[in-house]
Predict the structure of Glycerol-3-phosphate dehydrogenase [NAD(P)+].
Amino acid sequence: MSENTRPGDGQSPPASSEGKRSVAVLGGGSFGTAMAKVLAEKGHTVHFWMRNQDQVLELIEQRTNSRYMPGVEIEGDLHPTTSFASAVADAEAVFVAIPSKAFREVIRTHASDFTDGQIVVSLTKGIEREGFKLMSEILQEEVPRTRIGVLSGPNLAAEIVNRELTATVIAAKDPEMRRTVQELLGCDYFRVYANVDVYGVELSGALKNIYAIVSGMAAALDLGENARAMLLTRSLAEMSRFAVSLGANPMTFMGLAGIGDLVVTCTSSKSRNYRVGYAVGMGAELDDAVAELGQVAEGIHTLLLVKEKAESVGIYMPLVKGLYDILYGGASIRAVINGLMTAVQNSDVEFILPRTLSGQG
Ligand SMILES: NC(=O)C1=CN([C@@H]2O[C@H](COP(=O)(O)OP(=O)(O)OC[C@H]3O[C@@H](n4cnc5c(N)ncnc54)[C@H](O)[C@@H]3O)[C@@H](O)[C@H]2O)C=CC1
Ligand SMILES: O=C(CO)COP(=O)(O)O
């Protein structure tokens, strides 16, 4: 599809003045920029908070964020700022795109700036080490009087900024909140579906990053199309086994936030996690691959936490274990693949035919 014919290009009617609402986006990286752009183009007043003053100035003067989204201009009523309090003060909804490592610290530092009943939506796909907490759980602890939700799905920022057709999922218990987020974000290139399984949607978004690293590695080794399908399917089996054991709804994994996000992240070199896996598969050291990326690849961190958690609750996760052995245990990729391929053969869909525990495959 050419730039001129993209559904959102100039044909997307901006929100009418009565549809114009005030929102905030926290985090000046790739995804914060993409979501600020969607919201501003929809015609809302967007308060865009980031810590870097130079980035704020560039956004004000040139309407670009060249460090994270070179060549992308943001139109509309955008208010970039380093003042957290002024960003969230009048916002009906606050969208948080802060990497998981800094998420609690940022929210805790500014907790008193949030207002009671304000909608706060996490866009972050990661897990906190201490207590294996998801971002919505952190929000619940730090800003308990807000209304909390999670947005997750196959949402590559690099495509959203070009108005390429995208769908996502808002997960929240409160139906009114789900509707509000659908209204705020939905437009002719961005569709928002709803789910009530907050835990499943959120955990799925974090887990798929691990498998994107694995897939990137497999692509570097040119393992073939059958292998790619096997890997994707067994990744889905493994992540859903883990998440369901912790309380997620298995059906969530059939949706956009499950299989949808897994497919896009495991098959696209636009995914940072996939790129890290690819680089390691080509022989790079992990630290060099991450440094070269210059952006967050949550899966590296999530891998450690999930490996630990899976062992502590006794969930069999051979792909997580294999990736951990490669990245942190010095195992060769070929030896790990060989181990996986020669493990005892087991059931395909374990929700239909339960896995035999002796045949850990
Ligand atoms: N980029 C993408 O395509 C998507 C990303 N996400 C998720 O969004 C989250 C954020 O990722 P990106 O924006 O892509 O990362 P990024 O690496 O592009 O940017 C991270 C941003 O966070 C800021 N940051 C880091 N520590 C901070 C702190 N202590 N205080 C204030 N700001 C801080 C950085 O300055 C930077 O602006 C991640 O959890 C990621 O998984 C979710 C969907 C799509
Ligand atoms: O979550 C994403 C797409 O849905 C982005 O994935 P990466 O963080 O690997 O770029």
Q: What stands out?
A: Residues 125, 154-156, 209, 212, 261, 264-265, 271-273 surround 1,3-dihydroxyacetonephosphate (ligand 2) (CB under 6 Å). Residues 204-341 form a domain with the N-(1-d-carboxylethyl)-l-norvaline Dehydrogenase; domain 2 fold (CATH 1.10.1040.10).
